Amino acid sequence: PEAITVQELANRMAARGGEVVKALFRMGVMATLTQTIDADTAELVVNEFGHRVRRVSESDVEQGLEGTVDTDEELLPRPPVVTIMGHVDHGKTSLLDALRKTDMAGREAGGITQHIGAYQVQVAGGHKVTFIDTPGHAAFTAMRARGASVTDMVILVVAADDGVMPQTVEAIHHAKAANVPLIVAVNKIDKPGVNLDRVRQELLQHEIVVESLGGDTMEIQVSATKAMNLDKLLEAILLQAEVLDLKANPNRAAEGTVIESKLDKGRGPVATVLVQRGTLKQGDLVVAGAEWGRVRAMLDDKGRQMKDADPSLPVEILGLSGVPSAGETFVAVENEGRAREISEFRQRRLRDKQAAAAGAARGTLADMMA
Ligand code: GTP
Ligand code: MG
């Protein structure tokens, strides 16, 4: 059950703190403004003041996010969301750039692209793949720490001439912890004298057994700079996606995760979000982290204005009250009251956490002085 300070309760009823203290006193509860009372006591006070109680607990809010369960008929196939990881200089960015050039839709649009943290590529056969370009593993860790699960699979880039390196191992651990399948992209195979067997053996030491060694991890040999075997890599991604049977209900209020965000001088708070359920529409009211607002404009990774965004599509949204953090969830809500309620709840939770952390820090300091 939720607890609340007397002052906070007074604020929420727009009552004077002293009046609440008096009401408590009449009920036989001695409490000062800064003291915490339990939810039941608070409810009695609220009734005393002639208000109706509407408790917003964490589970209420989270239920709002999780919402109703979608039925099988409502679930439709969605594109896979793929994160590319690997050691420094093994060619992650080059590979993403190369894959992006295979985008059929992008080519039609003239190929003028802007950098956002995630983008969707349309590949042959009408299939789509969403790539997330996490700036280093720290962002991935931060997102996971917030409980955000955005990726369906990991592409592990290993440079053939360098083999398995510390950050390769880190990426393997990330994929395992996130419990998502991993596809190995052995890159730079255009370089002379590369030893593929050595790479496979090194991967084996970290329990990644590629198909050629009898395991079930797909291994694709590519060259990002020479654009070799990119089609094979995309094929492997689509094959893996098929196995995962990825689905979402597009016909509901949108939900998803903030991938990155910034405060833009001209445009105000800008958040790149990944829609994971439902369809996000321009004009929707959304709560993202503890921020909220109406989606004033929505842009895809090619800078095109979007009217709506369906599952697995990453978009930049404008119109939020502030800048949410990466890894926080967003949800479209029906009205401003609900938006404020969720936003205030999250702000309160954030303050509580900060206060708890500060308290813990003080405790440690006190321990050290003792
Ligand atoms: P960080 O972002 O710093 O971790 O590096 P990265 O993994 O993104 O590597 P990046 O794409 O920046 O490539 C590093 C270097 O490797 C660059 O000089 C690329 O030109 C080169 N490179 C990438 N892919 C290939 C390839 O397939 N063949 C060859 N020969 N060079 C490549
Ligand atoms: Mg890079």
UniProtKB/TrEMBL annotation:
One of the essential components for the initiation of protein synthesis. Protects formylmethionyl-tRNA from spontaneous hydrolysis and promotes its binding to the 30S ribosomal subunits. Also involved in the hydrolysis of GTP during the formation of the 70S ribosomal complex. It comes from the Bacteria. This is Translation initiation factor IF-2. It comes from Teichococcus oryzae. Residues 77-247 form the Tr-type G domain. It is found in: Cytoplasm. Belongs to the TRAFAC class translation factor GTPase superfamily. Classic translation factor GTPase family. IF-2 subfamily. Signal peptide: none annotated. The gene is infB. GTP binds at residues 86-93, 133-137, 187-190.
